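Course exercise 7: structure representation. Students receive a sequence record and must write out the corresponding structure in token form. The form below is the worked example handed out in class, using POT family proton-dependent oligopeptide transporter (511 residues). Read each field label carefully; the graders check that inputs and outputs are placed in the correct fields and that the protein name is recorded exactly as given.

STUDENT ID: A-19
EXERCISE PROTEIN: POT family proton-dependent oligopeptide transporter
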Amino acid sequence: MAIQNPPVSQTKSFSTVFLIEMWERFGFYGMQVLMVTYMVKKLGFGDSDANLVWGAAAALIYATPAIGGWVGDKLLGTRRTMLTGSVVLALGYALLWIPTNNPYFLYIALGVITVGNGMFKPNAGNLVRKIYEGDEVRIDSAFTIYYMAVNIGSTVSMLLTPWIRDYVGEHYGDALGWHTAFGVCSIGLVLGLINYALMRRTLAHIGSGPDERPVNFGRAAAVFLGGIVMVLVAAFILQNQGVAKLCVYAAGVVILGIFAHLIRSSEPSERAGLVAALVLTVQTIFFFIFYQQMSTSLNLFAQRNVDLSFNLFGLHIFNWIPEQFQSLNAIWIVILSPILVLVYNSLGKTGKDLPVAGKFALGFAAVAAGFFIYGLGAHTAVAGQISSWYMVWGYGLYSLGELLVSGLGLAMIARYVPARMGGFMMGAYYVAVGVAQYMGSVVANYASIPKDLQDPIQSLDIYTSLFNKLGLTGIVCTAIAVAMLPLMKKLSMSHALSFIPPVPPVHNEDL
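STUDENT ANSWER:
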């Protein structure tokens, strides 16, 4: 590794990754918040088709980091791959800026975004892991703050892009409104790259082996050609739902096979940590089935069955655009993240911090309560529309659950997985998340509303039936997570003890 001269603090290095991650998520969530609605309202997709296309896209977006992590570890370097991913993402969002409503063009743009995200996501997370490597006390807090960066960027973009779409659409035409909003996502990535250029010195000493050597142009060319092939493959998968389903479920089997192989072939001292990582990854898959409802069923629910007016004590405060309700997830995470960091640090100082497995169990309980809130709102609905405040509190509980499960998922990889597997396993974790995202879209289709059904009272019954079932599923997941606590405690203890050198034998002459 390069020698720091002058030394750079962990905080400054972390801030650089934090800020580029914030802008990258600005672009991603600015696009995501509109995508399902764009397919339904502008391209004429039915609810089911829009949900599944976005589910397949989300699966690919989360699956490609498995390859991107390997490219970062072995070929280009962690820093270089992260920066390359940022450039590719900016290009993908710029393609959505072009005013065409051809669905095949959409598939190509989503393919470019998939490749860019695959290069960016695991390597940004892996840089954070490298910055805090060996610092067990601060790593949960660091990843929670890192997760907050995601949500600062996404909060701004999820509020901004629907407003830009409506404003530009009203003054310059509906088509230009949609594509201008997507273009803002590309601008966000460009700003993130400028910010990194100004702060790059703080990460000069952090990275993988290839970062410390000159660029190998043969490897770079191979990565470029592989990226083009992956864009075309992704576009093909997105327009063929049968192929998409086969690929997603096959990816799930492959991930389990990879975990099994790594556990079997690992050193005995590494095995307990890998088994613990596998158990928590499976729990994360169940969480992301719930998470995918935000951009699918909950998004379409807000279009049809939520009163867009915020009123307090009989006074009207403001109105929201339906897609903007998704920003509640990010707003709550920005509010709750520093609170949880304080709690983690306070408990850690006294040795009473909950294990990651315990936090996962609490997270599922919070998610279950959040979905029951939406069902509760149906009992006070007026003309098939629930108060916007039910969305606020439902998203609040849902977001607390996300912080406790997804927010610590990266920290779980950093803690339990050997450093030599860090980039690859970070990618494998995202493949598991991708599988869950697609499964979440399949679940969302249980509340798919037929095009000819316009009665909000009927659609309310369909949506709340799904949300109540998801709440019950959350309770089951909580019970399973609690039941797994003794096993996780045993695995964590074995993992911790594997790093303690054995006590040498005492001979008589030593006495």
